[in-house]
Amino acid sequence: MRTKNIFGLLVTLSVLALWNISCDKVEEPFTRKIFIDTTTQDHQKKVLLEDYTGHTCVNCPDAAIIAHNLKNNLGDKLVIIAVHAGWFSTPTPGGDFTADFRCETGNTWDATFGISNVGNPNGMVNRKNFSTAEHILAPAAWSGAVMQALNEEVLTDVSISNTYTAADRKLTTDVTVDFVETVDKNLNLIVVLTESGIIAPQKNNNAATGPTPIIYDYEHNHVLRGSINSTWGTPIAVVGTANPASLKKTFTYNLSAGFVAENCHVVAFVYDTDTKEVLQVAEKELITTK
Amino acid sequence: MRKFYVAVCAVILSLSGMVSAQDLTQGKISGNLQLDAQVYRPDSAIGAFEVSERMLMNSFANIHYSLGSFNAGLRFESYLNPIQGFDKRYKGTGVPFWFASWEKESFAITVGHFYEQFGSGMALRSYEERNLGYDNAIKGARVIFRPYQGIVLKALIGNQRFFWESGPGIVRGIDGDFALNDIFKETTGLPRVTIGGSFVSKFEPSSQILVGENGDELLILPENVAAMSGRVNVNHKGFNVEGEYVYKYNDPSAVNNFIYKNGQSLLVQASYSTKGLGVILSGKVTDNMSFKSKRTEKGNVLDINYLPALTRQHAYTLSAMYPYATQPNGEFAIQSQVNYKIPKGSMLGGKYGIDIAVNFSRITELSRKPVNATTPIGEGGTLGYKTDFFKMSDSPYFQDFNIELQHKFNSDFKALVSWVNLKYNIDVIEGHTGDPMVNANILILDATYKFSKMNAVKGEFQHLSTKQDKGNWVQGMLEFTFAPTWFVTVVDQYNYGNDDKDRRFHFPTVAVGYTQNSNRLQIGYGKQREGIICVGGVCRNVPASNGLTITLTSSF
Predict the structure, then answer these.
(1) A29 chain-B contacts, CB cut-off 8 A
(2) Three-state SS for B119?
(3) Cα A202 from chain centroid?
């Protein structure tokens, strides 16, 4: 009996101890306003957020809002690419979703990173952690990952200069990569075209976001329209070879007839070909407005 | 991988230390293997897109060693690359599961990976379901302590499996089970009563998650989230009554849109069984009970708990076409089942009797109200909503009424007939926003005839009628068994009722199987429609495919 009493006491103390250390009760308010530093530095780390989406994906409008809010708060420090790929981006034979926002580059990226296979919406921030399968981030995880990435070391700077002639719809883009630190990695430069302000139907299941089940006049932004150099980019650094202080690459691209040049941007990013991680990114509108 | 080698060395060193005490050659080794491979042909008409690898493969092998009270084992897995419908993050080869365990007097200790369940699983359940590609094994340590007859205490700590890595959260739990009749021995004639309880907690470091209209409100996140449960089971003669209640503290997560409402779930079941009759009544209410060890995950990964679906799991293809997926954010479910056997020798029952099963289940949304006049229901960074826990709303998620009769006419011939009436909220369950409720009636006819001692033929006819979704389906199947070695199956599914005449496809399949003792090889060729596989309310999407399938199983 004495043994049982001691045992009972031990169990009770263990449960009480576990209770006290194992639960955080949060009282209202559950949030606090944060100050987001919008100042930029000479060598400013910028972050790439890829939103893998589709026009029949009912939860994707809410994800786009998360990306949009981050962009509003961070400005040029954040670059968004909306990749339409996978089942939810497939055009329907008839009806409201005949538009095709997919492109070969987006399809290849999606197949490689397996985003839509997991589900939409999902995305990546600087394509980090591809080797550990932790690269796929739900929209709820985007803000934390972006803030963390902004604090990382700046190894390169990327700048873009665009010249566009409307007559022949020809774009000439000069992309300059400056090496801020010595980088002994295999690096490629990817240059792509995105378009915003595309009005087309989008499925939606959140009445607070817009009409359900379909937002007919939905504004699709940052839509990946295609690569300007190639899907996996142009080599700019090789392990064991000294980096130049700066290098400049010039590319030309013909805009497809359906693209609105005033709504297009060139996005260029440098990434490590071994880990796929993006080191730096930049974005520039095709036509500079004053 | 390095950690695995260290673990294997630790096990080997442990074993070598035991050599002096026991002869390792007296131990027993057992294991099994399963390999599934598919070769894909593109068929854009049915939505089977090109697979660049042409062939995909899932495989696993368990190897288990036991010597007295010592057990050790590992599971080798290889996905090169994962079969369509399985998460591509499984791609690769390795040993994601290994363990060593031993029992010494009142203690049983496990180190490495293990599966565990507390009560019904609503507070904690780690398990694997290969067909779903689901595995939330815990990697850490577990102690089971039996200090006295009728008392079982468990304690565990670990991280959960996340494909080839571990999730970020640490899961801790304790559980106690008390069989009162065994503890207090003088209970002859009294009902058998078992009570239990558990306490489960997870730790996950805080992260920056922004909410609010402008995305500038930072959530104050609890790093430690706890759930506790109590349960009771009373069994007396043919009656059994059991219940479990779970309460979870604030757990803002991607699944519940980061609300701070506490969660709770109540499961009760009463049953009666006697020769020839069984009756089960069950009810479950769940409110905000998703419990994951990573707060930003939404898929079928890193679940700490398991919320059972109070629905019948159908075995036939067309009756399983619309399976229910448990809604962790809230549901109200009831289920009843009556099994009755018309006695053998009776006029109606004939020589062998007739088995009758009647089952009904209904699941609805919870009734929710705003917390105040200015906060929309479910808004992140708030308490979310209020609910009357015991009130069923008028918004149904799922309803299933089915009757099944089985009868053996003579030693060579038996048959089954079943009718299912389903209501399936495809908007909520599959996310087909705006699509109407699917109302379906399914008829199943299944007969098996043994034309010799070793040979039999089985035929199935299934028909599904509905005016929603893809319309009517019909399926026919013939299976020839040449025991103990061969079987041949021919199946065709036809979507003859599709509103789009160009999409009225056939899905034929032929399969041949060969069995040799504990080895079995099955090869099939044909088309498979897009669909959903669900086990116990957890589901996986299966894309359409066309091509060859190979399945090999072996055990030793």
Answers:
(1) 220
(2) coil
(3) 20
B82: its two tokens: 């994962």
Say which CATH number the domain at B401 has.
2.40.160
DSSP helix/strand/coil, B38: strand
Find, in chain A, the residue whose alpha carbon is nearest to that of B544.
A87
Query: Would residue B317 count as lying in a domain?
Result: yes
Interface test with A, best of B160, B182, B210, B302 (most A CBs within 10 A): B210
Beta carbons of B484 and B453 less than 8 angstroms apart: no
Do the bridges between strand B386-408 and strand B519-528 make them parallel or antiparallel, or are there none, so unpaired?
unpaired
- Non-local (6+) Cβ contacts of B498 within 8 A are B470, B471, B504, B505
CA distance readout (Å), B507 to B471, B523, B541, B545: 15, 16, 18, 10
Q: Using the beta-carbon criterion (under 8 Å), do B298 and A119 form an inter-chain contact?
A: yes
Q: What is the residue extent of each domain of chain A?
A: 43-155+186-234+261-283
CA A33 – CA B56 distance, rounded (Å): 49
Q: Do the chains contact at A70 and B163, CB–CB below 8 Å?
A: no
Under an 8 A CB cutoff, do B260 and A69 touch? Answer: no
Chain B residues in contact with A72 (beta carbon < 8 A): 214-215
Which pLDDT belongs to residue B24?
64
Pick the CATH number of A43-155+186-234+261-283 from 3.40.30.10, 3.30.70.270, 2.60.34.10, 3.40.50.300: 3.40.30.10
Q: Decide if A24 and B222 are in contact by the 8 Å CB cutoff.
A: yes
Contact list in B for residue A9 (CB cut-off 8 A) is none
Which structural domain, as residue segments, surrounds residue B478?
309-514
Which own/partner contact pairs does B47-50 have at CB distance under 8 Å and 24+ positions apart? Answer: B47/B530, B47/B543, B47/B544, B48/B527, B48/B543, B48/B544, B48/B545, B48/B546, B49/B543
d(CA B209, CA B297): 13
Determine the angle formed by the axes of helices A60-74 and A142-150, rounding to 10 degrees. 30
Domain assignment present for B474: yes
The residue of chain A nearest to residue B198, with distances taken between CA atoms, is: A15
Minimum distance, in Å, between the CA of residue A133 and any CA atom of chain B? 6
Neighbours of B543 (CB within 10 A): 18
In this structure, is residue B480 part of a structural domain?
yes
CA-to-CA distance for B338 and B439, rounded, in angstroms?
23
B37 inside domain = no
The parts of chain A modelled with pLDDT lower than 70 are 1-21, 38, 290
Distance from CA of B330 to the nearest CA of A (A): 17
Q: Would you write out chain B's pLDDT as a tens digit for each of its 556 residues?
A: 444 544 444 444 444 444 445 566 789 999 999 999 999 999 988 888 788 899 999 999 999 999 999 999 999 999 999 998 888 889 999 999 999 999 998 999 999 999 999 999 999 999 998 878 899 999 999 999 999 999 999 999 999 999 999 999 999 999 999 999 998 876 678 899 999 999 999 999 999 898 888 888 999 999 999 999 999 999 999 999 999 999 999 999 999 999 999 999 999 999 999 999 999 999 999 999 999 999 999 888 999 999 999 999 999 999 999 999 899 999 999 999 999 999 998 888 888 999 999 999 999 999 899 999 999 899 999 999 999 888 888 889 999 999 999 999 999 999 999 999 999 999 888 888 788 999 999 999 999 999 998 899 999 999 999 999 999 999 999 999 998 889 999 999 999 999 989 889 999 999 999 999 899 999 999 998 888 766 666 666 778 889 999 999 999 9
Q: pTM, whole model, 2 decimals? A: 0.90
In three-state secondary structure terms, B265 is strand
- C-beta atoms of A66 and B209 within 8 A: no
Helix (H, G, I), strand (E, B) or coil at A284: strand
Choose among B88, B216, B296: nearest Cβ to A140: B296
How many domains would you assign to chain B?
A: 1
